[in-house]
Amino acid sequence: MKRIGILAIMMLFVACVSGQDMNSGERMLASPEKLTIGGYAQIDYNQPLSSGEINNGLMDVHRLVLLFGYKFSDRASFVTEIEMEHVKELYVEQAYLNYEILPWLSFRSGLMLIPMGIVNEYHEPPTFNGVERPNLDKYIVPTTWREIGAGFTGHFLQSGITYQLYLVNGFLGSDDGAAKLSGSSLFRSGRQKGASSVFSQPNLAFRVGYTGVPGLNTGLSGYFGQTQSTLLDGIDKAVPAEIAMADSSLTGIRMIGWDARYTFRGFGLRGQLIAGSVTNTEEYNQFHGSDVGSGFLGYYAELSYDLLHAIGSTDHALILFFRYEKYNTHWKTAGGLTADPAYDRTDLTLGMGWKPVPGVICKLDHQWFMNNAGGTANRQINAGIGIWF
To answer: Nearest to residue 205, comparing CAs of 224, 226, 186, 192?
Structure first.
């Protein structure tokens, strides 16, 4: 397993090059039409495998999304993404105004995706390999991670440099004294998603990318700030005990990410590395009875090849891929908290995807899930279809 980890790191550095099409929001902004309508969908079948027992599979309309873009003028546009998950859960994933001040400078405000990792911004099913999104983009980067805020974005065309810089509300770390962060899922339950979001102080999110080489998309991301807490509302500044209680419900977050994608002659390489720290975890865990680690780390590397590239096909593809994934939400702990080896996880995914026409993909893969707590690896077969238009 150590050899596999070393190989994955080598692939990750080799993958310092990778191309990717525009995501849904970028497509909407680039459209010349006044009103643009689109969508994407993902329908999955997940079958756990065990040598000693029988397991039911799960079939699910995982997500169905409608996209709308409207141009008020050549400079001002509105983009929104309305998602239905598992048939019964309704969300707004994006809803922002984009105003182009200069060709390289646009103001953006509303509910926006945090530019961290690959899948959080490029989560349409035909844009990633595998039926399910990488678990690194679930437990470390809580995809789909979006918050309300404002900032600037732009692209220097001649140099191939892109940037995003936002001030947004942070994760809700404490809701009336109940912990929203945990060792197992880290920040995932703290996403506020634009739904009556509690705002204590702004958090900073940014990404600087480079697309100046054909097939290449690589970038450095950062997220810095503090969780929000309902216990900060209405406290008396003159009562130290109230202030101390509110402070115990807060954590600081520092997250740095690097991601890369490269395509060349049918081959695809992609990888990402996410690392960060959480401060005040000793007080937070003691106050809430939680087990949040003080440091987290995750990375993956993926190699793919389009078997139909050799015959010169451009309208359809048959892609084989392998992904090695490592992520640990208890990479570091503080205050006497013992690191849980079950949170140090490794996933292997081997699969294929058939694209009969642009915007449609049929997927099949086999996954192995392991952790440092030992025991037999859990296995799962996944199949599904994805569309995007």
So the answer is: 224
- How are strands ordered across the β-sheet holding 228-229? 178-179, 172-175, 228-229
Number of independent structural domains in the chain:
1
Distance CA 6, CA 23 (A): 32
Pairing of strands 178-179, 360-371: unpaired
Q: Tokens 């005040």 belong to which residue?
A: 280
Domain range for 125 is 2-38+65-312+330-345
Q: What is the pLDDT of residue 5?
A: 46
User: What are φ and ψ of residue 210, in 5° steps?
Assistant: -135, 125
Nearest to 77 by CA among 59, 94, 58, 54: 94
Contact 260, 15 (CB under 8 A): yes
Q: Over the stretch 233-252, which tens digit does the pLDDT of each residue have? A: 998 888 988 889 999 999 99
Residue 194: both structure tokens together: 């634009």
Instruction: Let me know if residue 322 belongs to a domain.
Output: no
User: Using one digit for the tens of pLDDT, what is the confidence trace for 107-128?
Assistant: 999 999 999 999 999 999 999 9
Question: Which structure tokens are listed for 303?
Answer: 């190699």
Query: Strand 172-175 relative to strand 228-229: parallel, antiparallel, unpaired?
Result: parallel
Instruction: Find, among 24, 61, 39, the residue nearest to 384 by Cα.
Output: 61
CATH number at residue 284: 2.40.160
What SS3 state is found at 189?
A: helix
Residue 362: name the closest of 327, 321, 319, 308 by CA. Answer: 319
